[in-house]
């Protein structure tokens, strides 16, 4: 786990938790000597998230991940460091090594607009890489900051757009007591507008209308046509979102 | 008799899903008490109150909606595959606590104890099961799953 990616407040809380366990002061902790396992456990505890470790990558878990991610681009999952595990009602459960990344939450919400809540199971970048590799049934996945050693496949260009209309951060927990020792999961503040949003998969798109692109449409490749349709859909989504917002 | 935590969830669900009127609410509570007393005397796992309410919902859709409602009302993470940690399946004390609270220890490592139950209010259950499961200063993590999955997992105890 690259601790520089972790929000400072979360990191402080993790060190406090570890210090409490060792009955010492956070300032007296020798941070370099904290085992990664213990750090991850404290981080999971602080977030109230399940912790997925290499020994947890069972066939059952892989099966659920496969089912939930079958329409997603593996490169997108590797880039944003997540794998959807399952959907229950309107709650999406995602395995991630950086659940505090608001851009990743935005991307997930774009993939799963039907889910109004996103909850996370925490994992380390190494375990996530292992999971992605197993899902692909091949060598290590092209994680960001992680080199597989095999020739890199170009990541699908992601268009720079506004967030999808239904994208939301997890709903804040309602008032009421949580069980003792289980800290609430909160992602504070509104997420920034992401630089990237994964365009919908071509398979989910309506077929292009013949003639809608004029006589030159025949000279465009299917990929280019899909790309244009993606752009149109994103613009339409933005307009719809704006209308929803301005609706009295 | 329902515990305070069971009653809290019971009343929440009865009201939200109109499972009973003001007049027959106590009759429904008595039915639950009667079922769970029998289960306790037989040494069977105690049905969680959420499972009871889902059964009383009338159909699967309403039952599912009830579970989703519980999930959406709390900040506890859903766990789709509760299963008793294999190394604990023969431990009688853990089995008893797990049966009593309809909660299972799904993962125990040097650093964490992950418990899975159905009632986010059941602080006593979490505490009791954690106390018999933890072997050191592990961190407790609690997750939620469907009553049917928990009951299924409970059968894994020897």
Secondary-structure blueprint:
The complex is a heterodimer of chains A (248) and B (158).
Chain A: H1 8-21, H2 36-47, E1 51-52, H3 59-69, H4 74-80, E2 82-88, E3 91-96, H5 102-111, E4 117-123, H6 125-136, H7 222-246
Parallel strand pairs in A: 1-4, 3-4
Antiparallel strand pairs in A: 2-3
Chain B: H1 4-17, H2 25-42, H3 49-56, H4 60-73, H5 92-101, E1 104-108, E2 112-117, H6 123-133, E3 139-144, H7 147-154
Helix pairs in contact in B: 3-4, 5-6
Structure write-up:
The complex is a heterodimer of chains A (248) and B (158). Chain A has helices at 8-21, 36-47, 59-69, 74-80, 102-111, 125-136, 222-246; strands spanning 51-52, 82-88, 91-96, 117-123. Chain A is α/β, with parallel strands linked by helices. Among the domains of chain A are: 48-136, GMP Synthetase, Chain A, domain 3 (2-Layer Sandwich); 202-246. In chain A, strands 1-4-3-2 form a four-stranded mixed beta sheet. In chain A, α1 packs across α2 (36-47). Residues 139-217 of chain A have low confidence and may be disordered. By secondary structure, chain B is mainly α. Chain B has two domains: 4-73; 86-154, Type II secretion system, protein E, N-terminal domain (GMP Synthetase, Chain A, domain 3, 2-Layer Sandwich). Helices cover 53% and strands 11% of the residues of chain B. Chain B has seven helices and three strands; from the N terminus they run αααααββαβα. Chain B has helices at residues 4-17, 25-42, 49-56, 60-73, 92-101, 123-133, 147-154; strands spanning 104-108, 112-117, 139-144. A three-stranded mixed beta sheet of chain B has the order 1-2-3. In chain B, α5 (92-101) packs antiparallel against α6. At the A-B interface, α2, α3, β2 and β4 of A face α4, α6 and β3 of B.
The biggest beta sheet of chain B, please?
Answer: 3 strands, mixed
User: Beta-strand percentage of chain A?
Assistant: 5-15%
- Fraction of residues of chain B in helices? 40-55%
**How many structural domains in the coordinates of chain B?**
2
- What is the CATH third-level topology name of the domain at 48-136 in chain A? GMP Synthetase, Chain A, domain 3
Uncertain segments of chain B of ≥5 residues (pLDDT<50)?
none
Radius of gyration of chain A: 20 Å
Order of helices and strands of chain A: HHEHHEEHEHH
Q: Give the beta-strand count of chain A.
A: 4
CATH superfamily of the domain at 48-136 in chain A: Type II secretion system, protein E, N-terminal domain
Approximately what portion of the residues of chain B adopt beta-strand conformation? Answer: 5-15%
CATH architecture of the domain at 48-136 in chain A: 2-Layer Sandwich
Mean pLDDT of chain B: 95
* Tertiary shape of chain A: elongated
